[in-house]
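Note to self: keep these together.
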Amino acid sequence: MLFVASVAYVLGVRRVRRRGETWPVLRTIGFFALGLLPYAVIELGFLGVYSPELRWAFSTRVALLIFAVPAGIAAGRPLDLVPSGIRERFLASKVTRIFGNAMVATVVIAAVFCLFLTPIAGILRVNPVVEASLGIVVPLVGLAMVLPMMALGAMHTGTFIAIEFLLAFVELLIDSVPGLLLRLNDGVLDLIPDAAQTAPWWPSLLHDQHLAGDMIWFIAEFADVPILVILMIRWMRSDRVEAKGFDDLSDEEYDEMTRAHLRGER
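Structure:
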């Protein structure tokens, strides 16, 4: 996945520059340094290696893959490298519009975190095929929410974005619930027995679950900050677009629009 993503991005940048357009170097640095590099560290480092054995490594890995990696990749603006026709069809699709708002993102992320409270988390963790596929599926789910959220700002009204902004604050509370329940529960919820004690520092079964709850809680609360920043930027852009639309109206058009609004017409 790292190789495919790197090659696709470099070819996209080369295609843009061949058209005579400029592509900021900071975007390329952001894509690799904030997106692919953390992904490599997560998947090839401690979290990826010990994910099948340690609950806290597994939960931390999933939380970072759905939060941190998509946000870092989005900093490289990969959608801007896609041909305009394909990008417009992608953004205009119903699925993209559904996933491209904070309302759905709140529900999806809360649902993912709630899986850690069920035996499903244990099944996902100990099954080698499923556990390995999460390294691809989870970041794609995060990208399906983050990329449209950044690109669709001008297509949503200020009121819609304001509602999203309020829901993002609600998400700060919702996302903390699974972590708190994992931390406070005195029974092992995934029903998977302890792995072999491969090192002196290896946590007990229950302590492992408590660490998983701590990490989910911390990452979820910290990772909501970039989402709030994205929504604030979208709100500012939408406000500028709406203000420009009003400025372009003549006095007669503005008066007619005001009268139509007072009559309850759209």
